[in-house]
Write a structure and sequence with these properties.
The strands form 2 sheets. Strands 3-2-1-5-8 form a 5-stranded mixed β-sheet. A 5-stranded mixed β-sheet has the order 4-10-9-6-7, covered by helices on one side. It has about 270 residues and is α+β, with helices and mostly antiparallel strands. The protein has 2 domains: about 100 residues; about 150 residues, Sandwich (Immunoglobulin-like). Helices cover about 40% and strands about 20% of the residues. The protein has 5 helices and 10 strands, in the order αααββαββββββββα. It is elongated and about 95 Å long.
Length: about 270
């Protein structure tokens, strides 16, 4: 019986490990500056945890076989354990997890706590049941005020976020349901939510951050490749959560300037 359990444990271990390794990659193609570092951290974590997993299961199978019941086995005795080994593996586990956490915190701190560059593209991201809206401050580089009393989600765009069109700073604000960004430029976003907690998630950018009602959360990232990328809401936000998605269109600087100019001209 002990040998059968050893074989079963080892087969499950090696087959499951093979399927993890055989999968080419777990994430979509990275298209932001931080993606390369995050992917490296992701791969390192998988490798280290994989080594620990395989070693533990191999040891488990061996011990199940070694201490199996058989005619020549001695009487079972209670063991108080080995304090030295317990301290050792607890310490190694703490070093591994704390070390990985500290390695990953630098990217998070850069995107969350360090301010964006002065020339970063400014975009306000607003989540509401069940849509995303994106606002650009226009030529004056200042957002106009918003008022919850002016919100009309059924009207979309400016009315949906309650833009106060009587505010002079709001005259050139551009509000859209599709996010346009220039490639290679840092993007400074102000993330907000109208009703419940949403989560702004762009898998290709390796970017995810909750949007919380009553808070304006500043973040920044830099897209590095032209293309269309999906936005998802990664927080269960109601019955329509499944359809709360959008698109990020990363274009050249010239195409971005033309798009902004066209949208501003439509407001005249």
């Amino acid at each position: 019986m002990g040998l059968a359990l050893l074989v079963l444990i080892w087969l499950i271990t090696f087959f499951s490990t093979y399927f993890f390794i055989a999968k080419t990659w777990w994430l979509p193609h990275g298209a932001a500056e931080a993606a390369k570092w995050i992917d490296g951290q992701f791969a390192l974590t998988f490798i280290l945890m994989g080594i620990v997993f395989v070693a533990a299961q191999v040891a488990l199978g061996y011990l199940v076989w070694k201490y199996r019941e058989h005619p020549g086995a001695g009487k079972v005795q209670y063991s108080h354990g080995n304090t030295t080994l317990e301290v050792l593996w607890t310490g190694l586990t703490a070093i591994l997890f704390i070390g990985l956490n500290l390695m990953g915190s630098s990217v998070w701190a850069h995107e969350r706590f360090e301010p964006a560059k002065p020339d970063a593209v400014k975009v306000e991201v607003t989540g509401m049941q069940f849509a995303w809206y994106f606002r650009y401050p226009g030529k004056d580089n200042q957002y106009g005020t918003t008022d919850p009393k002016l919100m009309d989600p059924s009207a979309g765009n400016e009315a949906a976020i309650g833009l106060n069109t009587s505010d002079p700073a709001a005259k050139d604000d551009v509000v859209t349901g599709t996010m346009y960004l220039p490639v290679g430029r840092e993007v400074a976003i102000n993330l907000r939510a109208v009703d419940v907690i949403h989560s702004f998630f762009v898998p290709a950018f390796r970017f995810k951050q909750d949007a919380v009602p009553g808070l304006i959360i500043p973040m920044h990232f830099t897209p590095t490749e032209v293309g269309d990328y999906e936005i998802a809401c990664a927080e269960l936000c109601g019955l329509g959560h499944y359809k709360m998605h959008g698109m990020v269109k990363v274009v050249s600087q010239d195409d971005f300037d033309k798009w902004i100019a066209q949208r501003e001209a439509e407001k005249q």
